[in-house]
Structures are given as C-alpha cells and as structure tokens.
Amino acid sequence: SVDASEAQSVPGFVCFVSAKDIPGSNVTGIANDETVFAEDVVTCVGHIIGAVLADTQEHSRRAAKAVKIKYEELKPIVTIQEAIEKQSFLKPIKRINKGDVKKGFEESDHILEGEMYLGGQEHFYLETHCTVAVPKGEDGEMELFVSTQNLMKTQEFAANALGVPSNRVVVRVKRMGGGFGGKETRNTILTTVVAVAAFKTGRPVRCMLDRDEDMLISGGRHPFLGRYKVGFMKNGKVKSLEVSYYCNGGNSVDLSYGVIDRALLHLDNSYNIPNVSSVGIVCKTNLPSNTAFRGFGGPQGMMIAECWMSDLARKCGLPPEEVRQLNLYYEGDLTHFNQKLEGFTLRRCWDECLSSSSYHARKKLIEEFNKQNRWKKRGMCIIPTKFGISFTVPFLNQAGALVHVYTDGSVLLTHGGTEMGQGLHTKMIQVVASRSLGIPTSKIYISETSTNTVPNTSPTAASVSADINGMAVHNACQTILKRLEPIKQSNPKGSWEDWIKAAYVNCVSLSATGFYRIPDLGYDFEKNEGKPFCYFSYGVACSEVEIDCLTGDHKNIRTDIVMDVGTSLNPAIDIGQIEGAFVQGLGLFTMEELRYSPEGNLYTRGPGMYKIPAFGDIPTEFYVSLLRDCPNSKAVYSSKAVGEPPLFLSASVFYAIKDAIYSARKDCGLTELFRLDSPATPERIRNACVDIFTKMCPSAEPGTFKPWSVHV
C-alpha cells in the first residue's frame, strides 16, 4: 500500500504520479513483461512504484522520502544457484550442437570437468539516466530529450504509455555522456515515467537519477555460471566439449535472450572444437533486469572457454601459449555454428603479438624473478579473441540517413546512430567528406539524432553502427552526386559551391535519404545452420602482471595488443576504442564486484564501494598496434567494427594473475588445478595464494553462517 499524504506538505510539491495516472498502457518492456509503475507486487528492490513532482529537484527528493509504503515480504530468488534449484528459467532454452560429443570423449586421452562464476558489472557511464519531457499542448504531442542509445523503443514505449500513435512523440538525442549498452533499453523505465508526469501536469518535467539510484534500478552486465566438460589429447588438442551457461537475467526478459545467444555463439572463442554440445539458460530472479553491456554475452562465453583451455594446458604439462596456438582456427574452417571463416587474420595477429611483446624472452625473465622472490610473483599470458559482428536479430541490421545540402554548400547530416563518446559522428562526417562528396569536413555538420528525421532506427549497439549508418550515409551521398553529374559535366572546373548554386537554380533536389541493410543474415539454432554474423573482428593481447602474495594486490606491468580493424576509418579513434575497451574489461575481470544482500538489495551503489579502474590500473607499458594490409570487403570503405571486440582481451590480465598464483602455490608444494572466479579481486588472489597464513584462517563451511552478501 502507498500513502503519499505526507509528501503533500513538502514545499514545492506538485503531485504524485502512479499507475492510475497512465492514459495509455502500463505494460512495457521488450517482451511486454514489465510495467511503467508497479501495481500490487514489486519484483525487485528498485522496482519503480510512483513518482513525485515538485518545483525543484531538492523538494522532489524530500517529498519522495515522505511517501510511506507498506510491504508484505515475499521469498525472493536472487542467485543463479537459487534459480537452478527452483527451476526459475525463462523459456526457450537455447542449444548449439555439432558433431558427436560422446564419441569425442571416448577418443580423448583426458577429460576435465569444472565450473566458473563471472560476476556482473555496472555500466558507470559518466552521465546517469536523464530525460526532459516537453508536452506540446495539442493532439497528444510530446517532445523528449533523452540520454538513450535507442530512439525507436524510447518513442514506442512512451507513445504506448501516453495512448497516442508514435508520430505524436519526438525523441531527440544530442549526445550521451557514455552508454556502454546501459542506455539501449533501460532508459525507458525512466523516460516513460517522465512522459506520463509531463502529460498529467501539462508542464515540462525533467528527471536525472543520482548515481546510487541509477546503479540500483537500471541493471548491468549479466552474471554467468559456466559448467564444462572437455575432452582432449596428450598434446593439448581439444576433441570434445560439453558446456552449460546460466545467466542471471533479473526480473524481466529485456535483452537476456540475445545475451545468452551471443554467449553460445562465442563459446569457442578462437578455437576449433570438432564436437560441441552446449546449452544456454536465462535465470529469472528478483533483481533489476540485467541488460546489454559492451560485449553482450560474448566476453562471458569466451572467458569460460579460456578457463578450460588454461586448465587443460596445465593438465598436459604444456606451455599455455602452445596449446592455444595448436587449437586456433585456420582460414576456411567452420565454426561450431557452421559459419565459414573468411579473411581469417587471427594467426597473423598472434604471431605479431608474440614478436612485438618479446613473449618468450620475457617469460624466461619472469621464471627467474619468481625463483628469487617468495612474496611477489609475476605472471604472463597471451589471449586471442574472435568477435562476431552483427545484431543476432537479423532485422536490426538496417540503418537510414538523411543528407541536406544548402545553397551555400554546407551539408547537414542526420543518421540513425547516436553519439556517446565513441566517435561515430566523426566517422560519419569523414564518410561524407573526403570519401563520398569530396568536400572539407568543416562544411558538414551533425546537429542531433531524432525520430522525426530518421525513423525506426536500430539501437546504437553491437559495434555495427559505423558499418550500417556509414553505408546508409554513403548511399544518400551517391544519390546527390548522381543528380549533380550533369551540372559538373557542364562546368568541370567549377567549385562545390558553384555546382550547388547551379543545382538549386536548375531545380535539382539537394536532399536525399539513404538506406542500408546487411544482406544474407539469419541463423537457426534448431538446425545449426545459417549465418549469424557478417564478419569477425580479431585481436590478440599479451599481458604481464605482478601480484603481492600477502595482500592480494596486483600491478599491471605491460600489455601488448595487436588488433585487426580492417582499413581504419580513423586510427586515432580506433586505438582509443581499443584502449578504452581493454581498461573497461580490466575492471570486469579484476576489480568491479557488485555485492547484494541475500534479499537482493544492492550494497555497492557508488564509487565508495564499487571500484572502477583508475589511472594507476592502466598497464605501465601499454602498446596498441593495428594490423596492416587487411581490408574488409564487407563494411564501409574496408573498415571493421571496433567498439566491443577488444574488451575480452583484458582476460589476458586475469590469466596472467592466475599464472602468478600458480607460481606462489608451487612454493607451498601445491601443483594441482584450482578454481579462480571472476573478478580476480585482492581477496580472491590472496586466498588462492595458499600459505601458512591462509591455513591459520580457514574459510567457514557453507551453511554454518548467514552471508552478508551473495554472488548473484
């Protein structure tokens, strides 16, 4: 029950908005399984029940705290383990099967079984979720200024809540202060509330979440549990794999099916596995719905692959880099989902990274260092990545563009992608300038992204925005150039401005739309056939770390990255993206740990308890190089996607830490395999470095105490 009577006494109070004030539908969400406002039942801590409007932000916060809510406690499902016990799964369950797994195990010399848990991650964009809604006062029109990656769904959900057609709602995005996937769908939980509030009052309404509110209600990267059984030969060659992925989806579907799909499609990382049996399960729990996050399930799928690859190399007593190289794909191989690898440059990246990092020489120096130091140990690891480029939902691989040329020769460009600091607008201006129209970049301007210029836009996500929007922009420019051909032929020595003025005088249209879709995409999980990806981006990273065995702290000494980005549209942007993705992955795998109470209440609601990478966490020596002479025929001007693929390369730091821990354990006479979950926090590193001190403080047995926090 909700009592908002005391809130009315707060100065500046305007009104309380709840489900009964919605003029349209309270049902929302990607799968229509969410509500704008909770009615009768809340399904997680952070579920929005109502909104308080006031004349200032401070007054609205005071009034919100004065609202009294009474709850009847329900027994929540919070962790993946609880969901497995209670079979709380979202259907359908996805599978990819290839070859004869049973026969593969029979032919194997060794079989290894294990599991690994990967924690979630908070997006921690600099700008939290923010919306300004401006009612227009006639015919149900509403203008929304939103920090979102997904204008189409923002428009659609707001229109549904307001009970008007989508053509009455205009969504505008100038730019975002970061997104990382967190604003692909979850901004709508705020946007629809603000739109309803503006409708009720008939006045503009603004809401920007505080960091603690944003972290509590908007979800993050899906935590994963991976269970595997792998069969392999004495030389380390993988024969057969059986793997189960469980991800914590939270209280609604949102994008969890897409996340588990991509995890299954990346369970091989870069390795040729002849026999595969895999299952992907989304767990429904009482947490705020988890959502898209840079990599979208790919890093989780590949991380578990590197876990068993690392362990089987130890089991064989062989150098991990040799076993990894032995199992890498070759040009023309078929993946476990039966897509042929074309333009496979990964082995070139691998050889260049081994060479540029002086891997073998430094490995000997590390072995010598570890012999001479008991409480400080160093480790090194080289990791490849293969990342599929495309939305796994085929119809999303489309984009539109609108190009206006004015009589002074200036160009106004609009396309379906949004700018969030990744440099998309810069690349699109480059496509128009020197590449298409042949004019200086100073003549081209992008004002914003909006639903009244380019409709039905796909979200700026999946790393494909430069590919699809770039081709749409190019298409629009070609239309204008074709119209200008007769004018250019009649005055070949004229300037761009001369041609445009002549075109106007001769009544030639100087405005054009462009459209592009990626052809021939589509994959059938049941039949394991089709083509889920347009192409793949490849990369290799080698990292060296030093751990303190007594405190669990670690230093990132050096990282070398070789990345295939095709023929780069803008090398400066692409190198920045590689560096940024790597450091964000560094947080995922070594630092950032979300802590929840057993009831599902998030403790880590700000930088005081949730640690993201800082300047000191960047490798002291950090070298990034782009692979040369590798044009990609399947994207605009031979380029390649770069946003998500490099993130997983930071797993090289995680496995370098694990390598250093093995050295520490060896000094205590321990040589057997051990489990290290992600992230590799100081607590986990310290406890894994077994010694006389850890033996003096044994861990309590599960079930003998009530934990203050749980791994969800």
UniProtKB/TrEMBL annotation:
Where is the Aldehyde oxidase/xanthine dehydrogenase a/b hammerhead domain positioned along the sequence?
A: 1-75
Q: Which PROSITE patterns match?
A: MOLYBDOPTERIN_EUK
Cofactor requirements of the protein: Mo-molybdopterin; FAD; [2Fe-2S] cluster
The molecular function terms in GO held by this entry are: 2 iron, 2 sulfur cluster binding; iron ion binding; molybdopterin cofactor binding; oxidoreductase activity
Recite the UniProt keywords alphabetically: 2Fe-2S, FAD, Flavoprotein, Iron, Iron-sulfur, Metal-binding, Molybdenum, Oxidoreductase
Q: Name one Pfam family in it.
A: Ald_Xan_dh_C
User: Coiled-coil annotation: which residues?
Assistant: none
> InterPro entries recorded for this chain?
Ald_Oxase/Xan_DH_a/b, Ald_Oxase/Xan_DH_a/b_sf, Ald_Oxase/xanthine_DH-like, AldOxase/xan_DH_MoCoBD1, AldOxase/xan_DH_MoCoBD2, AldOxase/xan_DH_Mopterin-bd_sf, OxRdtase_Mopterin_BS
Show the PANTHER family listed in the entry.
Answer: XANTHINE DEHYDROGENASE (PTHR45444)
- What is the similarity comment for this entry? Belongs to the xanthine dehydrogenase family.
Q: What is this protein called?
A: XDH oxidase
